[in-house]
Amino acid sequence: MTIPLADDVFRAPGVELFDFPPLWEGAPYWLTKPVVLAVGGALVVCALAWAAFARPTLVPRGMQNAGELVYLFVRDQVARPFLGKDAERWMPLLLSLFCLILLWNFIGVVPGLQFPVNAHIAFPIVFALVAYVIKIYLGIRHQGLAGYFKNLMFPPGLPKLLALTLYAPLELLYTFVTAPFTHAVRLFANMFAGHLLLAFFSAAGFWLLHEQPSLVGAPVGVLSVAVAVAMTAFEMFIQFLQAFLFTLLTAMYIGASLHPEH
């Protein structure tokens, strides 16, 4: 997070916070801070998974105990409600997705790093496209091409004319455009907005208390710092919630393709 400074005028942080040049002059254009944080976060998730499950014991302790708690949470709160008997089969994907998104989000409140990877739209788009491709593939594989579109466009009990003229176009638009778009943007927008708010209150407190201290501005500066601290705690809750919701929707899409009758 970059704190904007000025001699006598406060400049609120803006979208420039999300514009990262290459790490050094002459580096590839794609080699930026978010990419390094993304790769580092993925390696951390792999290391934690190895530490938790490489040598499992009958009585879990330490990292294994923590890993099993996360596994049980994803299995019972995300996978089983939508996948039923297929939950265990899809747990590697869902657990990896949840842990990686959560860690990438939490990087936004780590001092010195302070940028949630998913505040860069490219990363949520990749996650959403993976979920989307799996959803369409499973739907066609388990229902057949004709059966998939029939179940999608003509639900039982709905008059054919109404389905053809109103329901089918809306459902096609939702399935192939709206659903993957909102799946990605929901995660991105929350991380983007949260990072911007934290940057604003942190910058305001720094400017009022350090750059331009005054008797009038000091109370506002203290308030800004207090709000930044409170917002950090709230942002961590939002970061967890968005990881949970993204994984939950992925499980719901997979379950709908595997079991269209539900």
From TrEMBL:
Gene3D superfamilies documented for this protein: ATP synthase, F0 complex, subunit A (1.20.120.220)
InterPro entries the record matches: ATP_synth_F0_asu, ATP_synth_F0_asu_AS, ATP_synth_F0_asu_bact/mt, F0_ATP_A_sf
Transmembrane spans: 35-54, 90-107, 119-140, 161-181, 187-209, 216-234
Domain of life: Bacteria
Keywords: ATP synthesis, Cell membrane, CF(0), Hydrogen ion transport, Ion transport, Membrane, Transmembrane, Transmembrane helix, Transport
Pfam families: ATP-synt_A (PF00119)
Membrane topology type: Multi-pass membrane protein
Subcellular location, record wording: Cell membrane; Membrane
Summary of the function given for this chain in its UniProt record: Key component of the proton channel; it plays a direct role in the translocation of protons across the membrane.
NCBIfam families: ATP_synt_6_or_A
Family classification: Belongs to the ATPase A chain family.
Name by which UniProt lists this protein: ATP synthase subunit a
Species for this entry: Microtetraspora malaysiensis
